Structures are given as structure tokens and as C-alpha cells.
User: Fold Alpha-1,4 glucan phosphorylase from Ruminococcoides intestinale.
Amino acid sequence: MGNIMEKLELTAQSMYCKKIEELTPAELHYSLGKAVMGEIAGNWEASKIKHDSERRAYYFSAEFLMGRMMYNNLYCLGILEDVTKLLKKKGIDINVFEDIDDAALGNGGLGRLAACFLDSAATQEVPLDGYGIRYKYGLFKQLIENGYQVETADNWQRFEDPWCNRVEDEAVTVSFKGQTVKAVPYDMAVIGCKTTNINTLRLWQAEAVNDFDFTAFNNTEYNNAVQEKNDAENITKVLYPNDNKYEGKVLRLKQQYFFCSASLQDIMRRYKKKHGNDFSFFAKENTIQLNDTHPVSCVPELVRLLMNEGFNFDDAFEIARKTFNYTNHTVLGEALEKWPADLMTQVIPEIYHIICLIANKCQEELTAKGVHEDTKAKMRIIDGNVVHMARLATYASTYVNGVAELHTEILKADVLKEWYQVYPERFQNKTNGITQRRWLGLCNPELSALITEKVGSDAWLTDLSVLEKLNDCIDTRTITKFNNIKKKKKQQLADYIKKMDGYDVNPDSIYDIQVKRLHEYKRQLLNAFSIMTIYFRLKDKKLKNWTPTTFIFGAKAAPGYARAKAIIKYINEIAKLVNNDPETKDLLQVYFISNYNVSYAEKIVVAADLSEQTSTAGLEASGTGNMKFMLNGAPTLGTLDGANVEIAECAGIENEYIFGAKVEDIERMKKEGYHPKALYDANPEIKRVVDTLIDGTFDDGGAQGEGSFKELHDSLLKDSSWQKADNYFLIYDLPDYVDTKIRANTEYANRKEFGKKCLINIANAGKFSSDRTILQYAKEIWHTSYKK
Ligand code: BZD
Assistant:
């Protein structure tokens, strides 16, 4: 510890010629980060040596949404409190690091899951390293202007990045048709908690192969050189901002192949150092988890690399099949990656050729297994001009898994049905989880202290199942303590929102919160409609005993997703109306916070009274925000979808607020016909609410050509050539949703009973630790070592 302060002092001196107390926040961040890196260097090296000697796993992901690293690293090292005190002595508030941007190298759940997994693997001593992309710009920053989302660039590296070491001498090259680029690794230490184990996240940055002496060039060569540099650097310049939507762009394909090829070359280099050119142990020593299909070009790439080492195609493919496992994160058709064959040929022809070989082998294998021709046709990896990446991933993997029980069942019964019939032994479920270090310990020290007191130790930090002990201590005193903590966290969030967004949130109101990416299937619009329903009932004096409620939204829309952007505008229009209506403003407030990200989430999930999880049943693969809210004691107001099902199972459905159509109901309606227009015509209350989209209640900038509410209205009531009306069943679910919301509001008034529900949620959240998930991967898929 003393050591860290000495190192900090030295870095401050040598880098900035300053005393610690003279550093700017950015300088302090860099110096302290480097001091921490110096402190852990020995353990990191020792962990690498240990992992080199054993079977190890790799997590390949195009996204790692790490968030802010400083607090987390100090916390996992167990020195956050001490450093806070030591800095305080120098007159420095540890909160200065809130000025430092998050590392937002991911879109949402999938990227954050990857970050939680790394944290859990390090803590549980699972030899798991991550491989991904070091984007120059992470997920865009969001401003709200006149109710509309506006995007700005996320230049996160402008603060310098003390957590990554550039490893120049382990750079490799990656070739595309007509272009070869250099891949330079940046290594980030992933620090375990209560262990000396440290894992590695290796992120690749694309650069030009040649360093140029620009002055030596004549004009043309200079221009060519600059062009080459730009073309190379463009590959890792920016994270694609779509979640749950496939976008068939050349640059995206390049990103994927770039990091896959670099990572595999890296693994093979390490392997060769140990075994020379004998690759027969490759799959015994290495296992690779594919985080969705984004890294699936690894499969043909490994085959290619092995063929370069002298293997024939069949043997190379067998090794590949033993090496890879695939996690699916979505059932949405528009999110499944389907690359045009001609585009692949244009960019990575050799890889496309190998995919053709794999596709043929697959069809031969199916024939040999006696699979019916019609079924075989549905399983084509290449179908016409389309390469189906999920099929390639499923065929080339040892294990395939979904991310919640319901989701895995849907994969087996629907999305990957034919594959499940032919290869049932490949399918597993691995319900997602979240790390309790960040999502309880770090973000909620007050609740952590109460839990530690009640369960008798801080063992929950590395074994969340001990929370179940809480079930025996839910008495009046504990409930009161919990309620007081919640109150404090609500005040803190109110202060933070005031600082960030300028809103005055009433900390004595119920906080009903929906934070997640904006997507039609997640149904933020349903939440908006329920608020309008309640607003009208309050105005009409039809709703008695309503406890004042603040509805808080946070969501980024993909920049090209017009409907999602219209929904943001609609929510902001509602906010303007209800927050300024003297009849309702003390009962109902609506706020759309801007630039929702990991760090904001850490302040939000701890302060929620209700967790909104409203996706159409069957469409949210798992959700992980739902788990963060549960762990911090907010009951779920949600559908029986994704991991909500397991949350309700663990805590008891009577301790959640579950509403709406179930998967079977949705399926029945799809089969027998669903007529939202008839429901709307028959229910004046629904009609009134839905029509606020078109009746002039709100301004969607129509006159300026931005009018988009009419399109939303149409999407709910009119079949179009490409989509049925109300594809996500909002109108069907609205009445039950409103009833359930009002029931939650009524029950909240009984502070003791409601507090009990909250505590029961906490006590039964043990399952949702990513430690549990990662240990299941280690034991059931990877067969690596782990902490005993
Ligand atoms: O993955 C999400 C799912 O929607 C959640 O239900 C699930 O909990 C998490 C983790 O398993 N999927 C994503 O977040 N997907 C993306 O962000 C994404 C990004 C790029 C391309 C396609 C999807």
C-alpha cells in the first residue's frame, strides 16, 4: 500500500514534474493507474506463467464493455478505502476519477457480459483470457437536444489509458484481399478479488505495416503512404453502434476477421513455443468461446492456419471443431448475421473458400446421418449468396449455448431446431450473471455493509450463494435499515441527475426505472403508454391513492434506427407535458437521462424501487440489467421473458410484478391471428393513449420534416408489406401492464411489506453471479481449472 503512494509520487514526478496534489484529474488518473500496474506486475507475470502450463480458455468477443477501471481495480485489490484516505490527506477527493470516461468498447448486454465474465474468471482463478478490438472510438456519447438524441464521438483515449500495455514485439500482420495491416496488441490486466490471480484482456489495434519516413517521399508516394496508414487505422477506428441488428458492412467484416486472425496467430505462436510444430495437442490445451457469431471467421481462419502448418482440410477442421464453442445471444431474425458471399469473396477470399469446404462437409455429414433433404436444405451454411454465420458456428463447435433457460429452449425448439435434432449433445444452457464486485460491493457500499453484518462475513464477495442466509433475517429492523439505505441511494441519484442532466428529481417519490438500449422489442414505448394511461386517469380523477412516482428512462438508440429515435422523442414529449402540468406534477414525473452508460448504471441500479423489464415474451435472450436491479433490492416489473423467469423462480413470483403475454400466448396469437386494431377500437382508453402519437398532443417536429410519431402509430395498427401491425404486442399487453403497475404502486405504500419483497429479492439473487456462470463454463464446457 505504502508502495502504491510511493510509486504514484515517482510517476507524478517523472512524467509531469509535479507533486501528487498538483496533478490534474487526468494526470492523477494516469499516474495512479500506472502505480497500480507496477504494483501488480509480479502477480500478473506469475499468473501468465501458470496459465502457460495448463489448459486454458479464451473469450473471443468484438466487444468488452469494461466501464471505469480505477475504482474497480482498487476495489478488487482491496485498497480502495486506503487509497481514498491517503488521497484525502493530500486534499484530493477520490471522486475526481468520475471525470474520466468509461471504456465503452461495447454496445450493451453482450459487451458488458464479456466484462463481467473476465472479472469472474480472474476471481475464480479460471485461466480465461479475452481477445478483442481496441476501438479508437467507443460507443457514441448521447446528447438530448429538444428531445431528440444527438450523437457525438467517444474519444475515450484522450485521457491516456494507464491500464493497457502496448506489446509492440508481439504484433502480427493480417491480410485482406489487396491489403495487409499490422495488428498491435494492448494488454489489460484483469485483477481478481481475494486472489493473486490476474488474467489478461488483449485488444488489437490496426496500424499500417510500414513506418514511413515521410520526408523521403515524393508527393505521390506520400499520398499513398498516408492512404495506407488511414486505411489500416480505419479498421479499428470505431465500434459499430448497433445492438441486436446485423449490418452487412465491409468494414465490420474486416474488424471481425482482423481480431480473429490476430488472436489465433497469437495463440498459435504461444503453442509453438511450447510444442514446436506438433499441433496434435492444440485442442487439448486451448478452448475458444465465441461471443455470438461476431468472431466466427475464426473457424475458417484456424483451418487455414493449420493447413499452412501442413494439415489436410479434414484434420484441420476436426481440430477446429474441438476448439470452438458458441454462445448465442439473440433469437431476433434481424440480428442473425448473414454475410453476402460476394462480399466475403471481395474481402477475404481465402476464408470464403474454406467456408465453402466446411459447408460441403456439413452437407455430406448430414447425408451420412440420413437427414432428410428438406431438413438439410434448412441447414445449409451457404444458401445461394448468403453465408449463415449461426449455422457455421453451430456446425463447427463442440458446444452451443443459450444465455437463459427459456432462451436455450427457444433455440432448441425454434431458431436452431434442425441442429438440435441432429446434434442434441451439443446444446447446453448457461444462464447469464453479473459480477457482485462491481454491481453490489463497489456501487452500493451501504447495502454491502448491511449484508456483511447480516450474513456474518464478506464471503458473498466471492460466493454470492451465501446471500441465501439473509432469508432468515428479514425482520422489521432489517427492513427499516434496508429502506433507509434505499432512501440514501435515491438521494445520491437525485444529486447525480441534477449534476449531469439538471433535473430536480423528487427523492421521496417511487423510482420506477427502465435503463437499457432502445429497441422496439424491449418496449420502452409500452412503458410510455402506461405513463400516459396513468396521467389521464389522474387528470380524470379516476385514480385514487397514487403514490408519487418518478419514471426514469435511460437508453441509446442506434443512430440509424429511426423508430427508436422517435420513441426517445416521444418519451421526452411526455416528460414535458406531465412535469409541467400543475394537476399532476407532484404525482408524476418523467425523466430521460442522457448518455446512459456503465458508470451511470452504477448509480441507477442501487436507487431503483422498481425494475422495468418489459420485453415481448420470447425475445429478450436473458437480460442482465434485471439481475443488477434484483441484487440491489428492486422487484421486477416485467414479463416472463429471458432471465426474468429465473428471477421470479428464485425470489418467488409473488415478490415480483409479472404481467403480460407468455411465450405460449404470443405463439398462439401469431398462429391464430392478432388484431391490435380491433383491441384499440374496442378500448377507448387505449385509443386515447395511442392516439397521442397523432392527435396533436405532442410535437414530433412534423412541420420540419422530422415527423415520426405517425409512423410509430401506423406500425402499431397497420400491417405493412414487411411487418405485421404491432409486431411486439404492445396493445395486447398494455391493460395488464397498467394494472400491475398500479398494484405495485399501491403495495409500495406498505413500506414494511414492500421492503420485505426487496430483501427477498436480494436474498435469492445468489444464482445471478457471473461467478456461478463462469464456473459452469469452466466445468461443463471448457474443462479448465478453477479455484477449489
Ligand atoms: O446479450 C444481449 C441480449 O439482448 C440480452 O438479452 C443478453 O442478456 C445479453 C448478454 O447475453 N445482446 C446484445 O447485447 N447484443 C449486442 O449488443 C449486439 C452487438 C452487435 C451486434 C449484434 C448484437
